[in-house]
């Protein structure tokens, strides 16, 4: 099979089309023929070698990607599932695991990590769902803010941020979000109750709307110490970039590691259902042939992408 991989860590130029053996699904696993794979910031971290220790010494080539949409190609032995070959599905994969990531014509994943494609979604749109929405879901569950509480979302125009806004609203929370002037309308359309301008004084702007402080922050923009003053004493801060503080005033720090939840089938099914009903909005910025993965990584690094860039594995 063809995949997009790397044999050395570095910039986007290290990504290339490589040939790999077709993977075989084992017990409890499903093989998916990939039609589309979305490009996420975590993919660029893998490519750059920022978390190379996660490979536990396994040699390359390495294949990035956590999000895929396609059709079931084969089901491993002793696998309890209602899925059948040919079923359209979405999957979330651990790119640091033994099977590699989603940038490949064929992927193998635990059956718990594979769910039917959202109703009415094409493969490109469906591939943008699971990793970012699951990250937001895990963050909200860690924060455990009761219905009626107030949360702030930074980076609300991004994929994680957009899902965080929508899921928080679905949980019955009041949502304050930061955005540039150009993105304010988008963020409001996703369900934010109030939008404040981005900037170093964002915590002051949030406090102007919530004088006692918000119950929690989902920090998609990795503002860290800049957003900390917006949180009430004893509140929570969910971080997605491994920031370790310091925090004060009893604020609880919640690192979010989505790889720990990739086999949480019930959560994945719920997200799929919410996307099917339109409760979650699937946003595609552009679709590129798979061989243009390096270009996609460059565009992501340049910033300003709204929605996700998607690699088309039916076109190299």
Automatic annotation (TrEMBL):
Pfam families: ADH_N (PF08240), ADH_zinc_N_2 (PF13602). InterPro entries: ADH-like_N, ER, GroES-like_sf, NAD(P)-bd_dom_sf, Zinc-ADH_QOR/CCCR. PANTHER family: QUINONE OXIDOREDUCTASE. It comes from Streptantibioticus ferralitis. Keywords: NADP. It comes from the Bacteria. Gene3D superfamilies: Medium-chain alcohol dehydrogenases, catalytic domain (3.90.180.10), NAD(P)-binding Rossmann-like Domain (3.40.50.720). The keyword NADP applies. SUPFAM superfamilies: GroES-like, NAD(P)-binding Rossmann-fold domains. This is NADP-dependent oxidoreductase. Residues 10-311 form the Enoyl reductase (ER) domain. The lineage of its organism: Bacteria, Bacillati, Actinomycetota, Actinomycetes, Kitasatosporales.
């Amino acid at each position: 099979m063809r995949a997009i991989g790397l044999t050395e860590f570095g910039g986007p130029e290290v990504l290339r089309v490589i040939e790999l053996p077709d993977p075989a699904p084992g017990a409890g696993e499903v093989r998916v023929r990939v039609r589309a794979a979305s490009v996420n910031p975590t993919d660029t971290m893998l490519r750059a070698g920022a978390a190379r220790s996660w490979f536990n010494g396994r040699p390359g080539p390495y294949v990035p990607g956590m999000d895929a949409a396609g059709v079931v190609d084969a089901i491993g032995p002793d696998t309890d599932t209602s899925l059948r070959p040919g079923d359209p599905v979405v999957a979330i994969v651990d790119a640091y695991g033994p099977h590699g990531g989603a940038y490949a014509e064929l992927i193998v994943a635990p059956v718990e990590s594979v769910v039917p494609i959202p109703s009415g979604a094409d493969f490109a749109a469906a591939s943008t769902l699971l990793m970012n929405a699951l990250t937001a879901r895990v963050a909200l569950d860690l924060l455990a803010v009761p219905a009626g509480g107030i949360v702030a979302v930074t980076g609300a125009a991004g994929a994680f941020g957009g899902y965080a806004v929508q899921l928080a609203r679905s949980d019955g929370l009041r949502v304050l979000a930061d955005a540039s002037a150009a993105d304010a309308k988008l963020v409001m359309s996703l369900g934010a109750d109030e939008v404040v301008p981005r900037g170093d004084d964002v915590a002051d702007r949030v406090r102007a709307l919530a004088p006692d402080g918000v119950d929690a922050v989902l920090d998609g923009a990795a503002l860290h110490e800049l957003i900390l003053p917006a949180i009430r004493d004893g509140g929570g801060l969910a971080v997605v970039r491994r920031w370790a503080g310091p925090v004060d005033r009893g604020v609880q720090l919640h690192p979010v590691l989505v790889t720990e939840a990739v086999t949480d089938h019930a959560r994945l099914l719920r997200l799929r259902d919410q996307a099917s009903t339109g409760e979650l909005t699937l946003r595609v910025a552009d679709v590129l042939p798979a061989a243009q993965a390096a270009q996609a990584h460059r565009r992501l690094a340049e910033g300003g992408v709204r929605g996700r860039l998607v690699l088309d594995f039916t076109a190299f």
